[in-house]
Amino acid sequence: MAARQPDRSWAAEPERGLVLAVLAPGADGADELAELEELARTALVEPVGRVVQHRRLPDARTYVGKGKLEELKQAYGEAGAEVLVVDDELSPPQQRALENALQARVVDRTQLILDIFAQHAVSAEGKLQVELAQLEYNLPRMRGMWQHLERLGGGTGGLGAGVGTRGPGESQLETDRRLARRRVTLLRERLRKLSRQRDVRRKERRRTETPTVALAGYTNAGKSTLLNALTDAGVSVRDRLFETLDPTTRGYEHEGRRYLVTDTVGFVRRLPHQLVEGFAATLEETLVADLVLHVVDGSAPEQRLIEQIAAVDSVLREIGAGELPVELVVNKIDAVDTLGRRRLANRYPDAPQISALTGEGLEELRARIAERFGDRFERVRLLLPYEEGRRLNELYALGAPIDEREDTPEGVLVVARLPRRELRRYAPYLVAEAAPERRRTGA
Ligand code: GDP
Ligand code: MG
Fold first, then answer.
1. Residue range(s) defining the domain that contains residue 251
2. ∠ CA(301), CA(302), CA(304), 5° rounding?
3. From the alpha carbon of 239, which atom of ligand 1 is closest?
4. Whose alpha carbon is nearest atom 10 of ligand 1?
5. N or C: more exposed end of the chain, with fewer CB within 10 A?
6. What integer pLDDT is reported at residue 360 of this predicted model?
């Protein structure tokens, strides 16, 4: 009922969770389960065991086969688990059947991810998006939910605080669907408004001509660490998924030019459909970037690396970032031996190898970024008469790097890198490259 404290959960003890998955016959599911367990840890659930059933499809009523329920119950008891974590979005009957069989709380993959997003939403927009997603998840499940919760836990006291029940959506459990729908409409309206405000900010940024670089990539690749390393920003970095839900933009300077860097939320496989929209919105920042750095974890096993790169590429295409220039950046190179580095260089010959942690390769990366934007600017020599001092101020206001400045009898002589579209405005003041040299030697 009460608004939750965003950080409360970090102080709490992890719950013991048993992980359950139904996998296709023959699938080993190692990556899939590893990801689910990482998600669980992020939601403060310590995985204490796994139960896997191989079958073509999950059972429509009980998720696992009925025969498997017994084994599940036993494993649950033996592991001393406090919550069951399921690697799928469960239908309401499946969820109830599992809860009744185990007399325990059951959290599905969608709830888990929503819970994590709820814990990590920072901006007003991020919070609204999570609330909306939770409502959309809860709406079809409202019927009978309260009776059911009471039957299960003998009141809500024991059930209220754990994983899957946190976040702004929890208060909606007790409202009826009509109220919930009204709330959905309201949230959508507010989100639209916020997105318009963001448009305005984005246009502001466009006007300043500051090159913007977005960091995209699979979760845990080191994007937030790289943002910190490039900009000295204090974005929290933790070895947990989703630490960054909201894009954070910071600036840095390189050879007198200013750049903006935007951090984005990590990518994950099979994002709950309720969250896709909100997720895309947080990725919208990526869309306004002039350059996307696709950060990858160079220390990951080769196969996983290839899969993750493909997953991120396809999401980038999905959100319409396909036309933006994307550069692959291989991070965590400090954790890779010489042979590994060579293999990575063979496979990704154009990708700079860096370590956001030790700073290795960062200067090269900055230079590479600068080069990318080099053709947007032209180096010009201008003679600005003193009576037009305003022009000089404008030049500074543009943020154009001024490489040289000299006061001469005719006015201020500057060598600056001008954004191309400003060239025309300054055309009257252009002086030939050789002229000032002559003048200087003659003086
Ligand atoms: P994000 O999810 O992409 O934002 O990843 P983070 O920046 O939060 O980093 C995830 C984990 O990887 C953290 O524990 C970082 O300390 C670690 N990490 C990030 N960059 C490097 C690196 O260059 N080398 C090593 N060894 N670890 C790194
Ligand atoms: Mg991050």
1. 209-372
2. 70
3. 14
4. 220
5. C
6. 96
29 and 110 assigned to the same domain: yes
Judge if 382 and 311 occupy the same domain.
no
Q: Whose CA is nearest to atom 18 of ligand 1?
A: 222
| Strand residues in 58-193 grouped as ranges (E) | 83-86, 105-108
Contacts by residues 332-339 (CB-CB < 8 Å, ≥ 24 positions apart): 332/221, 332/222, 332/297, 332/298, 332/299, 332/356, 332/357, 333/298, 333/299, 333/360, 333/361, 334/358, 334/360, 335/298, 335/299, 336/298, 336/299
How is residue 408 written in tokens? 């001469």
pLDDT of residue 162: 61
Atom 22 of ligand 1: nearest residue by CA position: 332
Q: Are residues 213 and 111 in the same domain?
A: no
CATH assignment at residue 400:
3.30.70.240
Verdict on whether the full-model pTM lies above 0.85 = no
| 360 Cβ below 6 A of ligand 1 | no
**Is 274's pLDDT higher than 80?**
no
Whether the predicted pLDDT of 7 surpasses 50: no
